[in-house]
Every structure is written in C-alpha cells, then in structure tokens.
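User: Need the bound-state model for zinc ion:
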Amino acid sequence: MPAYVPRHGALPPMTHIPPGNDWRECPHCGLFSRLPPRQPGLIAICPRCDEVLWRMRRTHFNFPFACGLAALLFYLFALVTPFLEIEMYGRFSLARIETGPVQLIAQGWGLVGALVFGVTLLVPAVKLGILLITLGGVHWMPARPLKLLFRWYEPLSPWAMIDVYLLGFLVAYTRLTGMATVHLDTALYALIGFMLAMAAADGSLDIEAVWRTLDERDHHTKPPALKGGVLMGCPACGLVNEAEPGTPCRRCLTPLTHRKPASLSRAGALVLAGALLYIPANLYPFMVITQLAGTQGYTIMSGIVELAQDGLWPLALLVFFASITIPLLKLLIMSYILITTRAGSTVHLEGRTIAFRFIDFIGRWSMIDVFMVSILVALVRFGQFANVRADLGAVCFAAVVVLTIFAVNSFDTRLMWDSQDKGESA
Ligand SMILES: [Zn+2]
Ligand SMILES: [Zn+2]
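Assistant: Bound-state model below.
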C-alpha cells in the first residue's frame, strides 16, 4: 500500500497551526502534521516516527457492518452451544464458554474468573455492539451520542481477547488429549468464526472516515476561531483542539490533556508492582492436577517442561514465549524506557518508540496460560478421580499481565520526544 508522508519534516511552530479538522498530533511522538485528503488505499504516517495516522480503507461502511452482523451470529451461537466435552473413566464433562470463569470463581479465584469472563465474553460483545450501533446509525442516528459510544471502540480493542483465548484452547486441548477423550463442540467453531469476522471488520473499518461522517451532522465539530490555549490531539478521536487542558474534545467530548497525567510515576509504579508479582507468579504452582496417580502442582516452567517432554516442542516454545519471554521483555523494555525518559535522554528515540510499539502489540498474548487453566478447570471436574484447580501462581501471573498492560497504556511516549524538542528549541 502506498504511504503518504506529509511534506514538512520539521516541527511547525505550535502557535501557527491554522484551525482546521485535518491536523493531527502524532500520539507517539507529538509531531503536528496535516492529514492528506481521503484517497482510498492510502496510509498517512507520521513523518517523524512512522506511526500510522490514518489508514484509508477501500471499502464502504457496509462491509465492516456485514462482518459485524456475521460476528453477532457467531457470538450468539458460541453463547448457547457447548464448547468442549471430555470423557474420562466412563464419565462425561461438558463445558460451555462461561463454565471456566464460573469454576474459577467457585474455586475462590474470583478476580481471575472475572478477568477471563471480561476479556472473552463481555468486552468482545461490547466492542461488537459499538461497531454495529455506530455503523448502523452513522447516517441517521443523532451524531453526538454515537460519538460518545464510538470513542471507546479503539481503547477496548486490545481487551477483546478471543484470538488469544483460542491459542489457550490449543494448549489446553493438547493437555486434555493426554488425559481423556476430547470432543470439540459447536461453540469452538463459532468462536473461530467470530474471531475471523471481527478481524475482517477491523481490517476494513476506516475509523477516521466514521468520525468524518458523524462530523457532517454535528455542528460542534466545526473549528472555532483561534482563541488561544494549548494545542492538544484528542486521545480518542485524534482531532487537534486548541483549548485549556481538562476541557472536552469538541468532536468526541473526551477530556483533553497535554500529556497523559503523571505518566512516568504511574507507569513506574505499575512496572514495579508487575516485577514484584512476576516472582511469585513463577514460584507458586499455576494449577494443581489431581489424578488417580496422585496430585501434582505445575508452575509455569514445569508446565512448559512437560509439554517439551511430551514432544510438543512448538507448543512448549509458544507457551515459553508467551508466559516467560513476553512479561520479562515488557518489564525490561518499560524499565529502560522509563529510566531514559526520566533522565531526558534523546538517544535511540526511534528505537525506543519501536520497542514500545512492540510490547504494546504483544502484551495481551501472555494471557494464553490463564485461558488454558480456565478451560482445564471447566472440564476436569471428576472429584477424586481427576480434578484441576487453579492456584496462586495463576492469580499472580494474571495480575502481572494486567499490570504491565496498564503500565504500557499509562506511559506517554511523547515525553521521550519532548526532550528532543526542548533541545531543538533551546
Ligand atoms: Zn510520530
Ligand atoms: Zn476527540
């Protein structure tokens, strides 16, 4: 796809930006640049850090809307049909998609149960609802309420984790086949369909075009006459507002800030908490499996070793990468970024921004092991014959994943680039 790079490489002086709705502040480096006119297939990227500012899609809204409708059908199927069934010692156990969270709560791990329920059932449904209502009403429903709804679409996306859940299923499935006869059921295929339909909707949805279509029916979005204030890109819709920090965005009403508040200390505290919990997450058992042969606790590492001993190398590597490497990488990269930013360093700005994007992108894949446990506890419930329980390690590990995702979200990468801008203006 062709990429468009706005002409000016240097920072335009902040006070001389003419009012208009086509200016954007790059969310990663803070550079102000002007979006080109819409030209389907073009990608407008930040001239300084290559962040995508606008991915112009070739399809009309009808296509993502149709994908959303298909996803809705798949989701309803996944809700009402069984997910997996196992047979062990002549006994049967059936799990639906919500059985895992329910069992986790029943075992006393309410927070993990709520987390799994949230990211596999609740958030995907809310995200889908936002997509369908916004696209369904984009031409006729009142624009302001739709904007208040649509501004949550992108922030919620990383928390809809059906794709990660399906990988967790793959790991759980290979473990189960060693213990029992496993039957795959309708909900599994429905979830795969849901994931594909949502991916197609996301891949064809032109988010800026949605905002612009809503703008046409909302006079509030018209740029006001210059009145002074700070130029701030809206964190939700991207529009550049000239206002005092704390005032709502004129397009989507999201409160504006110049930089994310207390970004360094918040991200630092979250990274520290994540690092502290990473230790018990690896020391304590993740789950306890009871079979006739006896009871055995599995830590993250011993689970990986067992997969490898069974000759399942690709899965062992996958879980090693997701459960050991990614959290560690996140903690290390975030620490490095936080320390260099606090010191006002201007070295490797592009490299640090790329590293940040990388951990931002891969962070959610650490949930594989948590989902694996939630599927095992849902199915293996045969009392003293065979039983799987979640254990403290799983809670600590889930907390590490969530804390590090929050840490990445609360860090404002523009702070890194501010040191360079200060140096240039001095
Ligand atoms: Zn940039
Ligand atoms: Zn906005």
